[in-house]
Structures are given as C-alpha cells and as structure tokens.
Design goal:
By secondary structure, the protein is an alpha/beta fold. The protein folds into 4 domains: 3-61, Phosphorylase Kinase, domain 1; 71-140 and 337-528, 3-Layer(aba) Sandwich (Rossmann fold); 143-330, Dimethylsulfoxide Reductase, domain 2; 576-703, Barwin-like endoglucanases, CATH 2.40.40.20. Helix 8 (207-210) links the parallel strand 9 and strand 10 (214-216). Helix 4 packs parallel to helix 16 (337-343). The protein is globular and about 70 Å long. The relative contact order is 0.16.
C-alpha cells in the first residue's frame, strides 16, 4: 500500500493505521456505498490490519453537514451571518487586542493534529503569555498523567503494544476496552496462549466483562480499596519482589502502611466483591508470566482518580511487573491526547514534556521560540474557567475541535457560562451542540483532509496523508491561528506557510527529552519514540524522578460523596438512602463521544438502542419498572429520561451513555454530574453521582 494512501483513525486512542483506495481499484464493501473505502493497514504496529465499524464507515462522515464559511453574530439571540475570512479575522483580532491575556481562554482537543496543538499552545503561552489553555484531555487522561508522573517522573507509558502478544494475564480496571478500544481488545483476543486469562473489574457486566474469564463486579468508586487489599495480601503472604523494590523503588513502607487498613475481609464488604476474588488477583500478580493492566475512565474520572491509578501502579512496582514481566498501561481516550501531552497543551505544560513551573524548562522554550516572559503559574483548568466566566473574569473563550456543551460536568452551569462569554469556535460540522452558544465560527478541516502527525496510546507516531479534498473555504486549525497571529503583528513568531515547518520546529523542542523525535522523518512513520520499555537501561531500570527510582505512594481512599460508614463493617449500601442509586456511565460501541461524526451514519444509528439506562432487574422490580419503560433519573435539581434495560449491574447502580447529544436524546447525562474534581489532577468526577430513579412512563417494546 502506497504511503500516500495512509492515515491514522481519528477516533479512539489506539492509533490505528488506515488506508484508502484513493487512485486504485475500488474495494469490495457491503457496509458503505462510497467511492472511497477505508481499511486497516496490515503493517501498522497498532492494529496490524484490524479495523472497527466506526473506522470502516468514516467516509460517510466526511461531507455531511459541513461548515463552509465563517459565521458571526454579535448577539446570541440573532441568526448567524456568513462573513469572509478577512472579516472574521478582523473581528477576532479586535476582540483579542481589547482584552488582557487573563481574560482570554483556550479550550482545545485531543482530536487535533500535533502541529495544531503546538501552534495553539504557542499562541497562548508564547504570544499572549497566558497559561489559560486546557484540553478535553482534562476530562479523560489528567489523572493517569499525574499518577504516571508521580510514580515514574514522566507520563510516558512504560510499555507498548508489542507487549501484548507474549502476555498471559490481561487485567481491565475501569476499562470497557471491547467497546472503547475495540481493535486493541480484538488483538488481545487473538493472542494464542492456552494460559491466557482476562479479568475485568467493573460495576457492570460490560462487553469486556462478558468476554473475560472473570468479572469482578465492584461498587463504583471503591477501586482504591480493592487494589490496596491486593497489595496487603501480597505483602502478608511474602509474594512481593523485594529485590526489585530495594534496587529500583522508594516509598514502599508508606504504601504498605496504607494498604494494611484494608484487609480482604473489610475490603470485600466495602467493594461488594468476594474475598476469593482479591486472593485470585494477588495470586496472578505474584505468579503470572507477564501481566498487563489496562485502565481508562473508570479509574481516571473520579475524586479519587489519582489514588486509584497509584494503587494499581503500586501493585506493579511491588511485584516488579515492568518490561518482560508486565506493564501498567493507561489507555488514551482520544486519537492524539498523547501528542497533546508531548506539546504540553494543558494548563502547566510546554513542548517536549516540559512544565511552566520549572525555570530551566521555561528558559529552554523561550530560547527556542525567541520570546521572554512565559508565565510560570499554571492557568485555571476548564472547570475552573467556567466559574471565572460566570464571575466575568474570563470574557472570551476559544473552543477548538471539541463539544463542551455536552461533555463538561454540571451542564446547567456550563450553558450559562457559554451564553455569557464571547465564544469563538473552530468546528467542522454545523450541527455540533456548542455552536448554539457561539459568536464566531471558523470552518475547520478534519482528518484526513489535512496532513500532520498523531501519537497513539503506546507512543507510536503516525503520519496522516491527506485523502480527500476539504470543502472549499475551510482551513486547518494551525493555519487559522497562524493567520490570526500574523495579523496581530507576530509574523516572526508564527512564520509558517506550510504545516511541515511546524513539524520541524516541534521536533527541535523534543531534542534531548524523553519524547525525543528530533531525528524522525515523516517517511519513517509510523515509529514509536523511546525504548520499547521506556525506563529500562542496560543496567536495570532508571526513572525520570530526582532519585532515578520509581516511587510508591500511600494510595489513600477519601471520596466525599461516599459516607464514612463505607469504611466500617456495614458496607456500601449503608451509604445510600432507600431510593438512591449510583449513576455511572460509559461509551457505546458504535459511537464516538458526542456523535458529531458517528451520528451521521445510519448503519451505526440502527445498531444502537434508543437512549437507554441499564438497571438491575431486582432494583427495577422494587420501583415497578418493566424493561423498555421510560425512567427518570434525577439528582434533585435536574433529570434525564432514558429507556430502562435490564442487565447484570451492581445493585443500586444505574448506567447510561455519557455523550448523547441533545438532538438525539433531549437530555444530556452530564446535567446530573457536578464539577467536583480530583485534588491532584483536577479531573472531574464523571463516574459517580447519587441519584434517584423512578418510573416516567410505561412503554412496551413494540411501541419503539
């Protein structure tokens, strides 16, 4: 397959290599009727030719409801007017010139190309000298990033997909990989090992759990307790790797002291699991040939998210399960969230895995950019920015490639902020929910209309070759920001006339850093940066911490929304009132985030049920709810309506999809979630909310 025909899938973080039949003989296809077909790239290290249905149907999404002109309205109760690019640039530069840097905020996306994230980050931190920039990675990867940095000194994943084929134990914790990362899960299923074991820890019997050898159905939010109990058991039975701990780690004593608070008998009651399940996990960590633990939003989106991550990493460190013995593998949620981390697009980041708080690292970038005065104080996160908008301290919000009107927590408050602020949106599609609040809309291009790089979950960088002509009058995001900067008098700082110039500049920022790609050429891609086992050296292990040793942490358990009775013998249900449930959520197999793309594909829509919630049949019976009835889920302030589906879910829990757009379901799940955040990562708690459930309307299946 010619390199010009290849690109990376723009959906989940697996980073699948795809190819099209552009300029070649048409491919047979029973799924879509399009001249351009998409298939999995056989020699790509991420997917090895595999592809999911979302990837196959990508061509259907490329042309529907596309924006093809800048839009503007001074007042949000007016209709948009089509304007020229020059008029749009004049409006935005005038606005930016009249505001202080701290009155401006950028909210960008893990779906952008690395070059685009780099330019926008440079625009904020280099030109405007503000760290008021965050990305939707705050909603998915922040807790994993912080935990990796605390434990290893860097958030570079310590292993790669190459580790899958010779592993014998795969542990999924808070990850429904069969749905959220389907190609990765398919690859694991294909591992030919008679001793292969798959275990899933999740409150609901997810697709991943159904295909696992064991499903440990845990009470939501209690993962830290369970993992501490496993560490306690490993320590008590003498099955830790003392040599690895002594040579390559520090802080073990503090971690064990915390773990001792959770003997299996107590942990089983708190977590709602069996003691023998805890014993089995300890046995596997002690005895497996190679154990890989995968986790995703079930650990990250929590008030206790960083501690959940650290509790899992502690188990790997205690048993020496790195390299040939295993890996703690955080699954990236978005196609280029890893690339965004490389350019430092969160509130504290700078390119090349640098931090604004470290003077030497600020000076590096100031020298490379030719600027002075990069701000050394991290900016507010996106949830904090919403409050600052309501307080009239932030007056302009520029959203790029994401849909915060659906994805942020406490949506009632978010909508008020979006109504209040002057909102600029770079968007490709005319039906995205956030456009309802916009003042200026820039019509952007999508993958694979534009060229550039993305980095998948295991540090593999893929080059995206343009496969289709973009709609006339649209532009890639890097060019939009470059042209605005040039009109603000910053042509020397933003001299780019071609995307490749940005790639070459970004490469220089990585030289000598952990994520060094300074010698990479586009023709060499796909290629992974760093060693296969990132922290391994010729003489053992060396981490990016000051001591060179990995760090254990006392993984404390403190969740405000779970009553302290949970730490006593009464167990989980003692924390709930008679009519209360815990609302949890996840993804649908055939849809991506807020369905801005996948909602345009009839075959994907037909394969999903109406907006639904999964409830335990015994809980439903107590509420006089039959399957297919409409139910109301309420937090006392807001409510959503869903179709009741019975399933194997932990009692007093209820599950629904997080990203239903308003055009599809009329009510959004995130109306019910508050903007409470993890104290370390500032990632919102989007997986635990006390709600009440009641019958809304009796409905029979044949009525649908």
């Amino acid at each position: 397959m010619k390199g010009e025909n290849t690109f990376q899938c723009p959906y989940c973080g697996v980073g699948c290599g795809l190819y099209t039949n552009k300029g070649e003989v048409p491919l047979d296809d029973e799924v879509i009727s399009s001249d351009l077909k998409v298939r999995g790239l056989k020699n790509h290290p991420a997917n090895k030719g595999l592809i999911c249905l979302k990837g196959v149907t990508l061509p259907i999404t490329w042309k529907k409801n596309r924006l093809d002109s800048p839009l503007y309205r001074k007042n949000k109760n007016e209709a948009f007017k089509r304007i020229s690019w020059e008029e749009a640039y004049e409006i935005i530069t005038d606005k930016l010139s009249k505001l202080s840097s701290e009155e401006i905020y950028f909210y960008i996306s893990g779906q952008l190309l690395t070059e685009e994230s780099y330019v926008i980050n440079k625009f904020a931190k280099g030109l405007l000298k503000t760290n008021n920039i965050d990305a939707n990675s705050r909603l998915c990867m922040a807790s994993a990033v912080v935990a990796y940095k605390m434990a290893f000194g860097s958030d570079g994943p310590p292993c790669s997909y190459d580790d899958i084929e010779d592993a014998d134990v795969f542990l999924f914790v808070g990850s429904n990989a069969a749905v959220a990362h389907p190609v990765l899960f398919n690859r694991i299923q294909r591992v030919k090992n008679p001793n292969k074991v798959l275990i899933t820890i999740d409150p609901i019997e997810s697709e991943t759990a159904k295909k696992s050898h064991l499903h440990i159905r845990i009470n939501a939010g209690t993962d830290t307790v369970l993992l501490n109990a496993v560490l306690y058991l490993l320590y008590k039975s003498g099955r830790i790797d003392k040599e690895f701990i002594n040579l390559y780690t520090e802080g073990f004593e503090q971690a064990i002291e915390e773990a001792k608070k959770y003997p299996p008998s107590l942990a089983a009651k708190i977590c709602g699991v069996k003691e023998r399940d805890i014993e089995l996990l300890a046995y596997l960590f002690a005895s497996a040939k190679k154990l890989i633990s995968f986790w995703s939003m079930g650990l990250n989106q929590s008030l206790n998210g960083v501690m959940k991550n650290l509790a899992l990493i502690n188990l790997h460190l205690a048993t020496g399960r790195l390299g040939e013995k295993g890996c703690p593998f955080s699954l990236t949620g978005q196609p280029n969230a890893m690339g965004g981390r490389e350019v430092g697009y969160l509130t504290n980041g700078l390119p090349g895995y640098r931090d604004v708080r470290i003077e030497e690292e600020r000076r590096d970038i100031e020298q490379l950019w030719g600027v002075n005065g990069i701000n050394n104080i991290p900016g507010p996160t996106i949830t904090e920015a919403i409050d600052l908008i309501l307080d009239e301290k932030i007056k302009l919000l520029w959203v790029v490639g994401t849909n915060p009107a659906i994805t942020l927590p406490e949506l009632g408050k978010v909508w008020k902020a979006l109504e209040k602020v002057f909102l600029v949106v770079n968007e490709a599609y005319s039906d995205a929910d956030t456009l309802k609040f916009a003042n200026i809309v820039f019509p952007a291009q999508i993958v694979p209309e534009k060229e550039g790089i993305m980095t998948g979950s295991d540090r593999t960088i893929t080059f995206i070759h343009s496969q289709i002509e973009p709609p006339p009058n649209t532009k890639p995001d890097w060019l939009i920001f470059t042209e605005v900067a040039q009109r603000m008098g910053a042509k020397d700082l933003f001299p780019y006339t071609d995307r490749k110039e940005i790639f070459e500049e970004f490469k220089k920022t990585t030289k000598g850093r952990l994520c060094d790609i300074s010698t990479f050429e586009e023709k060499d891609l796909p290629k992974r940066w760093g060693r296969r086992w990132l922290y391994q050296t010729e003489n053992g292990w060396k981490f990016k911490t000051p001591s060179g040793k990995a760090k254990f942490y006392a993984a404390t358990f403190d969740i405000a929304d779970i009553d302290k009775n949970l730490l006593k013998e009464e167990g989980f249900e003692a924390t709930l009132k008679e009519d209360e449930f815990i609302l949890i959520n996840g993804r649908l197999k055939n849809h991506w985030h807020t369905m801005t793309k996948t909602g345009k594909v009839d075959i994907l829509l037909k394969q999903e049920l109406p907006p639904f919630a999964i409830i335990h049949p015994k809980d439903a019976d107590k509420l006089n709810i039959d399957e297919w009835d409409l139910i109301e889920i309420s937090d006392g302030e807001n409510s959503i309506v869903r179709v009741a589906i019975f399933g194997k879910i932990q009692r007093r829990h209820i599950w629904t999809y997080f990203g239903y757009p308003l055009w599809y379901s009329e009510t959004s799940t995130n109306l019910l979630y508050k903007d409470r955040v993890d104290p370390y990562s500032k990632e919102p708690d989007l997986k635990f909310r006390k709600v009440k459930v009641k019958l809304h309307k009796k409905v029979k299946l044949e009525e649908y």
